[in-house]
Design a protein that fits this description.
eight-stranded mixed β-sheet, 25% helix, disordered N terminus
Length: 425
């Protein structure tokens, strides 16, 4: 999945040349055509703004790797309670969002209100799951503790060793590949312009952002610029060090299998998550017969190599969870990159540079947060005001606290969109 690319140093970036071949100025310029960039562009265009997306392959990236879990409850982690409200709000919007997007695009996005079952396989993992259940209850969330036998009644393919679990009927799923394809069509129908090129630098004129420079030297001008590049937002040249987005890449490897028809019912009827020997794994069954298994979590920079070790670990833990899985055909392996911020929450809204906004850092929750991100960015672009629910996640929180001083502007500017894929859960 990795492609060979030429990295340009700052001195090699083509000088912007606003000649007759340069694109016309847009009201909104969205840099990055993944699901976050596309939903931002769609909402911008719906507000009547001339909107342009810069990406060499819009609709690709994270959507091609992510599992698509909408897991506001089962993804809850200690220290992330502030993020919970945003996750729940976005999950609540999904049914209407899916219906609106499917009508606008004519494409289904694979939204399933199927629920999630989180299970544990030994005493230690069961204790960890009990602690998660207690945290969920303290946060007022709905989840039901089940015995191992009750878990197996719901999902008969689970191993006899399952010691207990949590039934969360409110955690659902969508198909990120279908979601990206539908957003791309909806954007095209709403009049969004696509420039299939890579941005290498943010343009700043008179202390405000005025667009970007492309890898071929063209200048793309805009009234407002949104960086929706995942981790690669930190690689754009042209920004002072204190404004470089504090996002880092976290690698995740994912497998895809084909569930075989059975007279005894589906292999799995809902998303199953597990803690196996302290590690987390998920199995996401699609209505088309695909089973997605993931994901590793590796702090390896920009590497997206699929490794034998990563595949082995996922299959080993999945087999321990559902022994019958070894009979299924393995159809695809992949690896992508999650954009993680210092507090694992997204960066949404204006930076301290006028007319430059961020929509990145969604980490594990990119697919889940798509509806609320689109609404928030659309409101900001149209009115200049970020909705109240999104204000705790402004990029300025890191500028105030000094986190951004630890993130230096890169010495090399790599054309955005030409790097390995970003991943969202």
């Amino acid at each position: 999945m990795r492609s060979s690319r030429t990295t340009r140093t700052t001195s090699q970036i083509p000088a912007a040349r606003p000649d007759s071949g340069s694109p016309a100025a847009a009201d909104t310029l969205v840099v990055g055509g993944g699901i976050i960039g596309l939903v931002t562009a769609w909402r911008s265009a719906q507000r009547g703004m001339r909107t342009t997306v810069v990406d060499p392959g819009p609709g690709g990236g994270a959507a091609q790797v992510a599992a698509g879990m909408l897991a506001a409850v089962t993804e809850l982690h200690y220290g992330e309670e502030d993020l919970l409200g945003l996750n729940l709000a976005s999950a609540a919007r999904y049914p209407d969002f899916a219906a609106e997007l499917e009508e606008a695009s004519g494409q289904e996005i694979g939204y399933r209100a199927c629920g999630t079952l989180a299970v544990a396989l030994d005493a230690d993992d069961r204790a960890d799951l009990r602690e998660l259940h207690a945290l969920q209850r303290r946060c007022g969330l709905e989840s039901q503790w089940l015995s191992g036998r009750e878990c197996r009644r719901l999902e008969p393919m689970l191993a006899p060793s399952v010691r207990g679990g949590l039934r969360v009927d409110g955690d659902h799923q969508a198909d990120p590949r279908r979601l990206a394809a539908a957003l791309l069509l909806a954007c095209e129908r709403a009049g969004v312009t696509f420039l299939r090129a890579s941005a290498v630098a943010v343009s700043v004129t008179h202390d405000r952002a005025t667009g970007v420079t492309l890898d071929d030297g063209r200048a793309v001008r805009a009234g407002q610029t949104v960086l929706a590049l995942g981790s690669y937002a930190s690689k754009l040249a042209g920004l002072p060090p204190e404004l470089v987005p504090p996002v880092r890449p976290v690698k995740g490897q994912v497998l895809r299998l084909r569930m075989l028809p059975s007279a005894y019912g589906p292999f799995l009827s809902r998303t199953v998550r597990a803690v196996v020997r302290g590690g987390h794994i998920y199995l996401v069954p699609r209505t088309n017969g695909e089973l997605v298994i993931g994901a590793t979590s590796e702090e390896l920079g920009w590497d997206t190599t699929v490794t034998a070790g990563g595949v082995y670990e996922l299959l080993r833990d999945a087999h321990e969870l559902t022994p019958g899985l070894t009979e299924l055909p393995l159809t695809e392996t992949g690896a992508g990159i999650r954009p993680a911020s210092p507090d694992n929450a997204p960066l949404l809204g204006p930076t301290t540079l006028p007319d430059l906004h961020l929509a990145t850092g969604h980490y594990r929750n990119g697919v889940l947060l798509t509806p609320v991100t689109g609404d928030a960015m659309g409101e900001l672009l149209a009115t200049g005001e970020l909705p109240r629910q999104a204000r705790p996640f402004t990029p300025r929180r890191f500028t105030r606290q000094g986190h951004s001083s630890t993130h230096r502007s890169p010495a090399a500017a790599t054309p955005t969109g030409s790097e390995p894929q970003e991943q969202s859960a």
